[in-house]
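Figure 3 (text version): C-alpha cells given as input.
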C-alpha cells in the first residue's frame, strides 16, 4: 500500500467511525479542489519553512465553522505531517474508497454554474444508464466551461461543454 493510500485509508476510517463519512468526504473533495486551484494557498501549506503549527492554523482559519470538526482535524493533521502536497491525491483516493463502500462510481462534473437538484438528478440518471453503475456526482463550478458540462468518470471524459463545441467549430473552419 502506498503512502497516499495509507493516508486515505486512515482518513476514511476516521470519517467512517465518526459517522459522517459522506459529509466529510464531500468537504474534503471541495477542499482538495480549492487547494489544487489556489497556488498561493498550496504554496503556503506545502512550504516546509513555514512552521507546522502556522500551516495548521491556516487550515483551521479557512475551515473553522465552514466544515465539520472531523474535516478540519483531518486536513490539519495531513498538513501538520508535511503531506499537504499529497492532499489532493489522498482525497481522490478517499473519495474512491467512499464510493466503492457504497457500490458507486464517482463522476466529476465541471459546469459554468452550479447545477440544480433536478439537473443533478437527471444527469446522474443518464450516467447511471450509460455506465450501468450507480454514479455519485461531484460538481465543480468552473466558469471556463462557458456552458454545458464536462464529466469525468475514471479515465473516461465526456465533454459536452460550449467551449469544446466552439473549439470543434473553429477547427472545422
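Below: residues designed for each position.
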Amino acid at each position: 500500500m502506498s503512502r497516499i493510500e495509507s493516508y486515505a485509508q486512515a482518513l476514511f476510517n476516521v470519517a467512517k467511525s465518526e459517522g459522517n463519512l459522506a459529509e466529510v468526504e464531500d468537504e474534503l473533495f471541495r477542499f482538495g479542489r480549492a487547494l489544487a486551484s489556489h497556488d498561493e494557498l498550496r504554496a503556503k501549506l506545502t512550504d516546509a519553512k513555514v512552521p507546522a503549527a502556522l500551516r495548521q492554523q491556516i487550515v483551521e482559519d479557512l475551515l473553522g465553522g465552514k466544515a465539520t470538526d472531523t474535516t478540519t482535524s483531518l486536513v490539519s493533521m495531513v498538513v501538520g505531517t508535511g503531506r499537504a502536497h499529497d492532499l489532493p491525491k489522498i482525497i481522490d483516493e478517499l473519495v474512491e474508497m467512499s464510493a466503492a463502500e457504497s457500490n458507486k462510481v464517482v463522476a466529476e462534473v465541471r459546469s459554468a454554474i452550479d447545477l440544480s437538484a433536478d439537473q443533478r438528478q437527471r444527469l446522474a440518471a443518464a450516467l447511471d444508464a450509460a455506465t450501468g453503475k450507480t454514479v455519485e456526482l461531484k460538481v465543480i463550478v468552473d466558469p471556463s466551461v462557458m456552458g454545458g458540462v464536462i464529466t469525468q468518470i475514471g479515465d473516461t471524459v465526456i465533454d459536452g461543454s460550449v467551449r469544446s463545441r466552439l473549439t470543434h467549430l473553429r477547427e472545422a473552419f
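The chain has two domains: 3-97, 103-172.
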